[in-house]
Amino acid sequence: xxxxxxxxKTALLVSMAVEEDEKFIRETAEANGYKVIKGKVGAMDxxxxxxxxxxxxxxxxxIESIYRQEHALYHSVLEAYEGICRGQVGLGxxxxxxxxxxxxxKGSRLPNDGSDGEWLAxxxxxxxxxxxxxxxxxxxxxxxxxx
Length: 147
What we know:
Layout: H1 7-16, H2 19-31, E1 35-43, H3 46-59, H4 67-84, E2 97-107, E3 119-129, E4 136-146
Antiparallel strand pairs: 1-2, 2-3, 3-4
Helix pairs in contact: 3-4
Function: Antiterminator that binds to cis-acting regulatory sequences on the mRNA in the presence of histidine, thereby suppressing transcription termination and activating the hut operon for histidine utilization.
GO molecular function: RNA binding
Organism: Clostridium oryzae
């Protein structure tokens, strides 16, 4: 079922996987030539979300401090962020908060096919809503860009 996962599907599955499944998905992703990271971030401020993902991607060597890599990551995060905000980009200034899991996957668009270079996929998955417990709902966003 998981042997030929594309870049985007890999990022989506990793972000939503429970611990038992995540190990298998990661192993399959790595066998397909992908680098994978996963983390958590909660914030009412979008800059904290962007910073957490960029910091994790650099720390885990998904990207280096090279303009084209940072640029690809930024736009992938922005696309995923627009997805969770449903086009209304903003959190704290409109009294919304987010508790998110993020995944970043780097590799070819299709497994073991580097014919069109490296790409980055970013997924944001979690809950968003008013900053009151129980007033949130699930959200998900995906962004993919070439490096």
